[in-house]
Amino acid sequence: MERTPPHPEVPQFDLQKVLEALVDPVRRSIVTQLEASGEDIACGGFEMAVSKSTATHHFKVLREAGLIRQYYVGTSRMNTLRRAEMDEVFPGLLDALTSARAQARGRGRVNSS
User: Fewer CB near the terminus (10 Å): N or C of the chain?
Assistant: First the structure.
């Protein structure tokens, strides 16, 4: 039995689904944490202030939109950002998201000192 959940293929990517996935701050945080880490992260390895069941929902929305790919290593469900595939279909979208988040964090540091 295959444990890997289904993922959309690149031709199935839909801008509306991607934008709806990214509108939520928790999901944007998951994407930016994956981008910043440069490596795959287990579901339990993200910084999130939500319950486990809510986190599961957020991962599912991201996966179904095509933003992440999930696979198992032992009992851990790993997550990887589908950066190259997203850039192929929606060039610049993830760059805009991650640079906007970095700028907001930078402004937050400036305002807090």
Answer: N
* Residue 18 in tokens: 């991607």
Q: List, for residues 17-59, the tens digit of each pLDDT value.
A: 999 999 999 999 999 999 999 999 999 999 999 999 999 999 9
* Rounded distance between C-alpha atoms, residue 84 and residue 35, angstroms: 12
Name the token pair of 33: 């944490």
- Rounded CA-CA distance 58/36 in Å is 19
Q: What is the pLDDT of residues 52-111, one digit of tens each?
A: 999 999 999 999 999 999 999 999 999 999 999 999 999 999 999 887 665 666 666 433
Please name the residues in contact with 34: beta carbons below 8 A apart, sequence gap of 6 or more: 40, 41, 68, 79, 80, 81
The alpha-helical segments, DSSP class H, found in 2-81 are 15-22, 25-37, 52-65
User: What is the Cα Rg of the chain in Å?
Assistant: 14
Q: Does an H or E element contain 100, and which?
A: helix 93-112
